[in-house]
Model the fold of this input.
Amino acid sequence: MEELKQRILREGQVLPGGILKVDGFVNHQVDPALMMACGHAFAAAFAKVGATKIFTLEISGIAPALTTAIALNLPLVYARKTKPVTMPDLVLMTSAPSHTKNRMVDIMTSPEYLGRGERVLIIDDFLASGQTTRALIRLVQGAGSTVVGIGALIEKTFEGGRESLEDVGAPIVALAQITSLEGGIHLA
Amino acid sequence: MEELKQRILREGQVLPGGILKVDGFVNHQVDPALMMACGHAFAAAFAKVGATKIFTLEISGIAPALTTAIALNLPLVYARKTKPVTMPDLVLMTSAPSHTKNRMVDIMTSPEYLGRGERVLIIDDFLASGQTTRALIRLVQGAGSTVVGIGALIEKTFEGGRESLEDVGAPIVALAQITSLEGGIHLA
Done:
């Protein structure tokens, strides 16, 4: 998606450890017009997968997942990293690595909102190693539902996430693909 | 806002400790059409305050703040509760009570995205005691900017937040007002 790619090239910053900082328009500050355009791009890409629910992980997945949910008019569920008192006593939980916090975090979802027989479209900000997406897939499948698509604003193709998720059998769509962060930002 | 009120009456649950659970359409699961309608309602209510930026607190403030940002086409900044490695070394930080976690949490924002001279519209899911909003106001004012409006999806009028924020001099708009949670949900 050209608009996102141009923004990454113009405003993205490469930090030590292979981290791409996009805090100015995706993470800490969100550009609503860009994010809505990304939601429409995901909606078009996944128009035919028959999704019944959008699923993401708090925090930075919420913005792209919400605009996709708006574009497709489907409910959005976001997995939580801490258990609020409003969650029931029994939840589905797994763990996933946090790249920006350098530790494993628990992620969980309430069976009230992710039950059996849903066709789930996973939307997140980044697809890198695929381990966060894999954790979301465990929650979806553990709930008795099916992953019908995986969308990421930005894929780091050199971290192998796409290949690691092939067994899921769901289409994977990234709106911008970073092929390397060595000596600058290189896009596909 | 009638649509939100009806949804609260139909699906809201009162939990011990005066907590109103709206996880089915606001917090854990989001109804995108309802949330977009709330964003348009805030945009209409604050059309004349001359806001230049929308500000909220992760996590549950993001959805209503983003739809408001979409409706007003203004950038959204969300204050963070943990410091990701992408944040600069020097940030603005304060603390706020978390009602759903029963402890104080640090909240912070990068000076990169909340600087001087902005006219800031604060949008959050709940207005209860006003302490979270007060913490966001400290960040805005600490950055050298001005709060021009405060919006909440749901106000618990019996917790005194609105009165406690009167000195800010900004209009306060709630889309639904809960006057009591004793023996059920009572709306204004």
